[in-house]
TrEMBL record:
Domain Bulb-type lectin span(s) in chain numbering: 27-148
Lineage, broadest ranks: Eukaryota, Viridiplantae, Streptophyta, Embryophyta, Tracheophyta
InterPro entries xrefs: Bulb-type_lectin_dom
Coiled-coil ranges from the UniProt annotation: none
Protein name as annotated: Bulb-type lectin domain-containing protein
The entry's keywords: Signal
PROSITE patterns per the UniProt record, alphabetical: BULB_LECTIN
Signal peptide start-end: 1-26
Pfam families membership: B_lectin
Signal keyword on record: yes
Length: 199
């Protein structure tokens, strides 16, 4: 009888561990057709970063952003729809049919998109322990788009500021317009390419 109880307990613990692992993995990832709506968040696996909807101080507009989970303020370190805020709390963040990360308003209009070309259906969005939000192809786990390549005003470890001489593309920081408006402001920090690269 004692052996049966031991086996049953062991089986239960294995099932519980499996459930916890699956639940823990799911909290940092959105896979189509799933989505998060306003008031919901996903959290990085180490619990350091949150992704969700927020309003800046003295503002009722809603934005999708990333902020530190263990800090009392929701001052975002990255903002998706920084130039096009939501005016209500009916927004959602999901993966569109063409495989892009999108922010939709209550009428399902696209407010912001990752704008990756080439339709690939099997994609998911994950918030990494570094604070980087990545869009990846599930079969190969290859990263198609990442927030570190499109930063707001915050510089995090492992992030790189860069300038491509051939394409002219830049990865640079840009200030908020004000404490209550995360739209692109007056100042930027990046690399200017003359004869030699300069910061």
């Amino acid at each position: 009888m004692g052996l049966v109880r031991t086996i049953n307990l062991s089986y239960f613990l294995v099932l519980l561990s499996s459930f916890c692992l699956q639940f823990g993995h799911a909290t940092d990832t959105i896979a189509a057709p799933n989505f998060i709506k306003d008031s919901e968040t996903i959290i990085s696996n180490d619990g350091e970063f949150l992704l969700g909807f927020f309003s800046p101080v003295n503002s009722t507009y809603r934005y999708v952003g990333i902020w530190y989970a263990k800090v009392s303020t929701t001052r975002a370190i990255w903002v998706a729809n920084r130039n096009k805020p939501l005016k209500t709390t009916s927004g959602i963040l999901t993966i569109s049919k063409d495989g892009n990360i999108v922010v939709l308003d209550g009428e399902k209009n696209i407010i912001w998109s990752s704008n990756v070309t080439g339709s690939v259906p099997n994609r998911s969005v994950q918030l990494l322990d570094s604070g980087n939000l990545v869009l990846q192809e599930n079969t190969t786990a290859s990263i198609i788009w990442e927030s570190f390549q499109h930063p707001s005003d915050s510089f995090l470890p492992t992030m790189k500021i860069s300038a491509n001489i051939i394409t002219g593309e830049k990865v640079q920081l840009t200030s908020w317009k004000s404490q209550s408006d995360p739209a692109v402001g007056t100042f930027s920090l990046g690399i200017s390419v003359f004869n030699l690269p300069e910061i």
